[in-house]
Design brief:
The strands form nine sheets. This protein has a 30-stranded mixed sheet. Strands 9-10-12-14-15-16-17-18 form an eight-stranded parallel sheet, covered by helices on one side. It has 1375 residues and is of the alpha/beta class. The chain contains 34 helices and 57 strands. The chain folds into nine domains: 3-147; 173-332, Rossmann fold, CATH 3.40.50; 338-411; 416-518, Arc Repressor Mutant, subunit A, CATH 1.10.10; 554-676, Leucine-rich repeat, LRR (right-handed beta-alpha superhelix), CATH 3.80.10.10; 684-758 and 765-770; 781-883; 1075-1229; and more. α1 packs across α19, α14 (338-350) packs parallel to α16 (376-385) and α20 packs across α21 (468-481). β3 (281-288), α12 and β4 (310-316) form a beta-alpha-beta unit. Residues 180-350 form the NB-ARC domain. Residues 437-505 form the Disease resistance protein winged helix domain. Residues 30-57 form a coiled coil.
Length: 1375
Amino acid sequence: MAVGELFAAALIQVLLERLVSRELLNFAHREGLRRKLEKLKNTLSIIQAVVDDAEEKQHTDKAVKKWLDDLIDLAYDAEDLLDEFTTEALRRKIMGENRADSSKVQNLIPACVTGLNPSALSSNVRLGSKIKEITARFNDIAKQKCDLNLRENVGGRSNRIRGTLPPTSLVNEAEVYGREKEKASILELLLSEKYIDAAVSVLPIHGMTGVGKTTLAQLLYNDHKLKSFFDLKAWACVSKDFDAVRVTKTILNSLIFEKCDDSDLNSLQVELKAKLNGKKFLVILDDVWFENYHDWTILRAPFEAGAPGSRIVVTTRNQGVSSMMGTIPAFHLQVLSDDVCLSIFTQHALGERDFSAHPNLADIGVDIVKRCKGLPLVAKTLGGLLRTKMGRDEWEDVLNSKVWDISPEKSGIVPALMLSYHHLPSYLKRCFAYCSIFPKDYEFEEKQLILLWMAEGLIQPQEKEKQMEELDGEYFRNLLSLSFFQQSSNDKSRFLMHDLINDLAQWVARDICFRMEDRIEGCKPSKRARHSSYLGSEYDGTKKFEIFSELTCLRTFLPLMQPMHCYLTYFVPLKLLPKLRCLRVLSFRGYCITELPDSIGDLKHLRYLDLSYTSIKSMPESTTTLCNLQTLRLDSCYDLKKFPSKFGNLVNLRHLNIEGTLMPPQIGKLTCLRTLSNLVVRKDSWSRIKELGPLVHLRGTICISRLENIIEPRVARDANLIGKPNLSGLLLEWSSNFDESQDRTTDFEVLNLMRPHKVLKELTISGYYGTKFPTSLNGPSLPNMVFLRIEMCKNCCSLPPLGQLPSLKVLFISRMARIKNVGLEFDGEGYLQPFRSLETLCFEGMQDWENWIPCEEFPRLQELSIRWCPKLLGKLPNHLPLLEKAVIKGCGQLIISLSSFPELCELEIDESKGVVCRSKVDFSSLNLENLSTISKFTCQIEGLDMQGLTRAENLTIENCKELTPLWSNDVGLLQYLPYLRVLKISDCPRLVSLVAEEVGEELQLGLPSKLREIQIRHCHLLKSLPKTMMCDNNFLTSILIHCCDSLMHFATDQLPQTLKELKIVKCKNLLILLQEDDINNSNSGTSFLECLEIHDCPSLRSLTSSGELPATLKHLRISFCQKLESMAKRFHLDCSLEYFSISHCESLKSLPMGLHSLSHLDKMEIWICPALIVFPDEDLLPVNLRVLQIFGCKNLRVLPNCIHDLTSLQELDIRRCPGIVSFPEEGFPTNLTSLEICDLNINDALFEWGLHRLTSLKTLSIRGGCQHVVSFPEMMLPASLTSLNIERFPNLKYMSSKGFRMLTSLEELYVSACENLMSFPEDGLPLSLLKLRIQKCPPLKEHCKKDQGRDWLKIAHIPCIYLDNKFIFETGEES
C-alpha cells in the first residue's frame, strides 16, 4: 500500500469531478475560461490512466516515487485554483444580490454587470494566467510518463498486500494469557438456555485488529464443555475475499469423512443441510468482512436445519458485520493489561513468563510492552523479533523503531492493519489519513472531526444526495465500527485512536500532515505539508512558529488544547497569518487574543474559524468576505461586543456557535445554517427572534433564552419552530431574576406559539412564568419526545399530562415551587398506558410537594430519584419491575417500602447506600443526619431490620444535636457494624465520648475491630477517644480531629500501633499530643506513624512527654502553634523523615538535635519563627536535602556555613531574615536550579561571589537589598536562566544589553518597584521570552505602551505582557 493510492489517485479523481461540475462550467463559460479548463481536464485524464502503474513502481523506482510526490503537490495546487474559481463566482453572486437589494438567491449574475466591473476583469486575467501555469505543470508531469515507462490502465495491482496464513482451529493454550474472564462469559452465553428457542443463534466477537478475536474463538472451539454440549463442530476462515462456495465446502469437509470437491453452491448447501439436520452444532466463522445481507442469508440457509441451541460464532473487526449477522448481543473484546501483554511478550521473546532469568532486559522489555497498548498480536510480533536476541542494543533498537519499520515477512501486525486500511473505500481513506494530525492519546469529539473533514473538502456530496453533515456522520460511524476509532473510557462523548492506528494514519499521510511535536530537532517539515497541528502551551512565543514561515500552502492551522487562559505571540495573527493564504481551517481557540487583523479577509479559502474562549472584542468587517466559511465557533467569547455589519454575507455558513456571546446581525440571511447554538432575546431587540423563521435547515439543539423580553407574542410564531423538522433538541429559558411584579400573562401565549415540530426528541423548559402549560406538551403533539426537563416554573400549580408522551424515556421535574399534588392529571387521566417508555424519573427541589398518587406501574423505569422534597408524604410506586437504582434524599416524611424495589436494586437514602436482596436491604455505607438514634433511620424504611446494617463499611453522622455517645446501654449503634471501616462524625455538640462511661468492658471488646479511618469535626465536648478502639485495633491507619475544643491530649501511654496518619486542626485547648514518658517504652508500644500534621492549636506546648518522635515519621508539618517551644529533643538516627515544615510558631527557640542525620529529608520549610536563632548540630544540614525555605525568621543570625556542601540542594529560598549579615565563605551549591532571596543584607557579597557559577540555575528572584544598583545585570548571569524576577531596586535606571544577550533561554521576566527604570536594553529582549510583567515602574510602563511607547517594538513579540496587572492587549489606558 502506498501513499500514492491515498493522494494521487484520489486527488486526481476529485479534480476531474470538480472540473465537470455545473457551477464551475457555467462560471468558466461566462468568463471565457472554459476552453482552458477543458485542456486541464484532458491532461488530467492522461495522467490518471498511469497512476495505478506508478503506485506499483514507486516501491522500486525512486524517480517514480518523486513523480508521484510532485503530482500530489501539483494536485493540491490545482485544487486551490478551482477553489478560487468557485470563490470568485460566489463573491460576484453576493455583490449582485447586494446591488439589487434582493433577498432572492440567484444562480447567475448578468454578463453585462460583470463585464463592466474592472475588478471582475482583473480577476479573469489572474485566473486565466493561473490555469495556464497549472496546465503547463501538468503537461510536464504527463510528458515524464514515457521516460518513466508508465503504462496506461494496467488493471489490478500485482504488488498486493502480503497476507498471512489463515488461522486454523488449533491453539496452544499454554501461550494464551489474560482471556479467562472473556472465555467464561462467552461459554456462559453459548451454553445458556436463554437463546435455546432459535434454531441457530449467531454470536459476534468484535474488536480491533490484533486484539485476539481469533485466539479467543480457538479457545472456545477446543473447550471440553462445548465438545459434550454440541453434536457437531466446524471451523472456517472467511477472510476479506468472501467466497460462499469455499466457506460452505470448508464447513462441509470438516463434517464428513470423504473430501468433497464439488464447486456447485446449491449441491454443497443441500448436502450441508442434510448433515446438520436435527443436530445441535457449533460453527466458527473467523475473520468475516462482507456486509452484504443478501449474501449472508444465502450462506446461512443450511444452518437453519440445525436443532435448537445451535450456535454460530463470528469474529470480525467490523461492527457493521456484527449488527447484520448477530442474533445475540455482540461481545466487544477489549485490549489486555500491560501485565498480561508482558507475559505474552516474554513467552515469545525468551520462552519464559517473566524476566527472572534475564533481569538485565526487564526495564527495556517493560517499555516495549507499553508500546503495545494492550494488543496481544503486537506483543507476539515484537517478542518474535527478539527471539534468541539477548543484547540490550538489539532490544533498544526495537524499542526505538516503529512497527512500520518491521518487514511484513516478519510481522503479523503490519499486514493485518494494512488490510483494514486497504478495505476502506477511497473517500474514507482520505478522511482517515487526515486524522494523523491528532497526536497519540488525543481525545476528539465526533462533531469536531466532522466539521474539519467538511472544511478540508474531504466530502463532496453529489446533487440530490444527503447533506454533508449526514454523510460525514456515516463516515465517522464507519471508521468507528471498523475500530479505527475507539470510544474514550473517560468520556463517552469523545474518541481516540489506538497508537498503532495513529501510526498507520501517519504512515499513509506521510509529509502531507505535520505535527509539531513529532518534529525532530533541527529538521524542517516538508514544504509539501498541507495540514498541521500542535499542542498549545500556556505561552506560545515567536520561536515556536518560525518553521511555519515557509509552509505557505498550509491548509490547516490547528492548536489542540482544552479551553484555558493561554497566550499567543502577536506575530502569528499579524505577521504569519497573511502568508498562509490557502488556509481552510484556522483556530485560535483558548488564546487571549483581543483582536483579529483586517488581513483575515484575505483567507478566501477559509471554511472553519474557531475563536472560542478567546478575549476577542470585535470582528473586523473584512470577515464578511469569507464567503466560503462553513463553521464559525465563538463559544464563550464574553468580550465580543461588535460584529461586522454585513454578517449576512457569510452565505455558506452552516454551523454557528455563539454560546456566551451576543447574537450577530442579519442571522435571517444565513439560510444555509444547520446548527445555531443559542439565541438570546435582548430587551432592545426582542423582535429579532423572528429571524429564526427562514432558517428551515436548522438541526441539532438550539437554546432560546431571555424569553421574558418578548413584548408581542406573535413574533414567537414568526420564529417558525414548527417548520424546522430537523431540530432534535430545544431549550426554552426565561430568566430567574425577572421582576415578578410585572404582568406575565403573555408567557403562556409565547410558549404556545413556540410549538416545535412533532419530530423533536429533547425539550427543556426553564423559568417559565405562566400558571399553566399549553396543550403542545401532550402526547399527540410530541410523539417522538425522549427527554424532557421542566424546571423553575414557579407559578405553575400543576404538571402537564406527561404520561401521554409515548416515547418519553427521561423526565426531570425540578424546583416547581407551587406544585403540591401530583396525580392522575400528570399520568394523563384516562390514558391506558402512562409512561410506558419511561426509564429515568427525577423530582428535585419540590419544597411544597405533599401528595403523589402514582400510576399503578412504571413498566420500564430503571432509575428513580427524589431529592429535597421535605413535605412529601405517603409511599413510592409499588410496581417497578425493572428498577436498577433509587435515590431518596431530603424527604424525611416519605415512607420507603422495601417491597417496592426489585432484587439487586441499588438503594441510596440520604447518602446511605445499599442493595436490595430478598426483600431486604444490605447497606454498605450509612449516613445519619439530624438523627439521635438509629431507630429514626429504620422507621423511615418499611421492612428494614438491624440485620441490614451489619455489612456497612462506612458510617457518617452529621448534625445529631442530641447524640452523646455512640455506644451505650440504651443506644447500641455500632455493635451492629462489625465490618465498619470508616467512621465520620461532625457537628454533634453534645458528643462527649464515643463510648459511655457505664458501658461494660465486654461491650467495649465488641466494638468494630476493623476500623481503618476516623474523622471527627466540630464536636466541642469530645474529650478523648476510647482506649480500646485506639490500642486494640489492628487496622486503624488514619485519624483526623478538627475543632474539638475540649480535647487536651490525643492519647496516653502510646499511639495506636497501626496508625500511619494523624491530623489535628483547631483544637484550641490541646496541650500535648502524647502524654507518656517514652512512647517507645516497650516493643508493644512501638509507633509506626508516618504522617503528623498539627495546625492552629494555640495552647500546644509540646508533642510528647519523652521528647522523641517516632522513627517511622516521613511527613511532619506544624503551623500556628504559638506556645510551642520545642518539637522534640532530637530526631532518631534512623528517622525516615522526608518532609519537614514548621511555620508561625512564635515561641519556638530551637529545632531538634540530629537534624543533620536525616538522610531521607528532601524538603525543609521554616516560616515565621522569630525566636529561632541558630540551627542545631553546629549548623550542619542533611546532605540529601533538595529544597530549603527559610522565611521571616528575623533573629536567625547566620546561614549554615556548610551549605555549599549540599550537592543535592536544588531550590534555595531565603526571605526576610534581616539578622543574616554574612555570606557563606564558600558560597552556595553550584547545582542550584532555583534561588530566591528577599530583603537580605548579603546581596553585594553574592554578586561579588558570582551568580554565573550557578550553571544549572533556571529561576532567579532578587527582591530588595540592592540599594546601590544602577544597571542590571552588571554581573554575568547563568545562560541557563528561564525565569528572572527583580524587585525593589530603587536606583536602577538601565538594563544591560550585554547581560541580557547571554540569556537565550529566558522565558519569564518580572520587574517590579523599580521606579527609576527607564527602558529595556537597546538590543531588545530575548526572542525566547514568553511572559513579561512590569509592576510599579511608571517610566518603563509609559515606554512600553502598545503601538506608542518607544520600547514597544522591543517587547511586541512576547505573548503575555502585563503592565500593572493589566493585559497589554486589553483596550484601555495602555492602548
